[in-house]
Amino acid sequence: MKIYKLILILLLVTSCSDADETYYEIKGDEVVYHSVYRLGQEYYTKAHTSIKTVEDADAKTFQQLTKYYGIDKSSVFNEVKKLVKRDPATFKVLKKMVTADKYGVYYDNNIIPNSHGLSFRFLNNDYALDDNQVYYQPSDFNSVVTGADKNTFSVIGDDYSDYAKDKNQVYYKGYVIEGAVVGSFSILKNDISKDGKSIFFKKKKIKEADYNSFKTLRYEELKEYEYKFIAQDHNSFYSDNGGNIAITKKTEITNEH
Predict the structure, then answer these.
(1) Which of 8, 166, 193, 237 could lock 229 by a disulfide, CB 3.0 to 4.6 Å apart?
(2) pTM of the prediction?
């Protein structure tokens, strides 16, 4: 455990210090890019500095947008690479890997099909939309939430919620929760939710759940059952079995509980 914590601390320290040494600099008529790289066994102990010229960059009009992107009057650059078909006037960095301009939305500099860059916006950490479509963790065509109504789409919960809805359906991580009623839907906890008549785990209905007696377990109850279960009703306990719900009849539990 101590070794694990030490590794985490080292990763945080190295990533922060490396970020401080990553930047664009204008030197006379040139734009140069400073970055840091690390090698194998000396990864945690030694940082190597790289200084490269940003070819074709116009020093007089160059602006750094983030530590990884810059623009001049006619081009957009990712580190030292000049990106093809980008509009510097409308280009914006939304997240480290997500950018947009008048031509579309890009993930890792690859355009997302049918995306609309000028209207694109994040709703929370994972959900986003534009004038054409809705996304969950926008990256490629697979991240488009199929069938979602962009005009009524909204997130249920906080900035890190996996739940969302539109006028017709409820979604978990971009997938439709089949049978969930929008008007009565609410989030419980532990990836469990409900509507006015059913209980759901992630995107699936728990058909075996007794609605009236079903409840998620409090922290004290989780401890009591050694964190094996996340919910119960008067017949059964429920646990997360690798992303699927596992059901244990209460008659199977020993009397010690």
Answers:
(1) 237
(2) 0.86
